């Protein structure tokens, strides 16, 4: 884990590697709305690393890291069509806490 900026224990970036090859990263910090909670701002894996356990291992490492700092909750956002990620997060015990919806509007409608 790398803390960024230096000396800020509430922000971290985890580099995800397979052997010597970087395959992704995770950025986490304070929850934007809940004091005392943490938030995964971004997690990214290269395509060939997806579905191979790196996401699960990274999320578990993030949970361990923030828990060691006294954080009692970790939240994140996932886009609705990303069923693989939703399945991963649910299998790790994450639950839906809010939902956004949209409807495309036909420009020709009156």
SSE blueprint and pairings:
Layout: E1 2-3, E2 12-18, E3 21-30, E4 38-45, H1 54-68, E5 74-76, H2 83-91
Parallel strand pairs: 4-5
Antiparallel strand pairs: 1-2, 2-3, 3-4
> What percentage of residues falls in helices of 4 or more residues?
10-25%
Which residue ranges are poorly predicted, with pLDDT under 50 across at least 5 consecutive positions? 1-5
Strand adjacency order, main sheet: 1-2-3-4-5
Share of β-strand residues? 25-35%
Instruction: Supply Rg.
Output: 16 Å
Structural class: alpha+beta
- Average pLDDT, all residues: 88
* Number of alpha- plus pi-helical segments: 2
Number of strands: 5
H/E element order: EEEEHEH
Write down the overall geometry.
globular
**Biggest β-sheet, characterized?**
5 strands, mixed
* N- and C-termini, Cα separation: 54 Å
What would you say about this model in short?
With 110 residues, the chain is an alpha+beta fold.
Description of the structure:
There is one protein chain. The chain is α+β, with helices and mostly antiparallel strands and 110 residues long. Helices cover 22% and strands 27% of the residues. The protein has two helices and five strands; from the N terminus they run ββββαβα. It has a five-stranded mixed sheet with strand order 1-2-3-4-5, with helices on one face. Strand 4, helix 1 and strand 5 form a beta-alpha-beta unit. The longest helix is centred in the middle third of the chain and has 15 residues. The radius of gyration is 16 Å and the shape is globular. The N and C termini lie far apart (54 Å).
């Amino acid at each position: 884990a790398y803390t960024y900026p230096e000396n800020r224990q509430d922000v971290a970036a985890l580099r995800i590697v397979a052997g010597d090859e970087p395959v992704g990263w995770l950025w986490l910090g304070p929850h934007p709305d809940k004091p005392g909670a943490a938030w995964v701002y971004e997690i990214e894996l290269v395509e060939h690393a997806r579905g191979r356990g790196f996401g699960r291992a990274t999320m578990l490492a993030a949970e361990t890291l923030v828990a060691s700092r006294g954080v009692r909750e970790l939240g994140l956002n996932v886009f609705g069509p990303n069923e693989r990620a939703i399945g991963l997060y649910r299998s790790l015990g994450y639950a839906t806490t809010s939902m956004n919806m949209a409807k495309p509007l036909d420009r020709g409608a009156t």
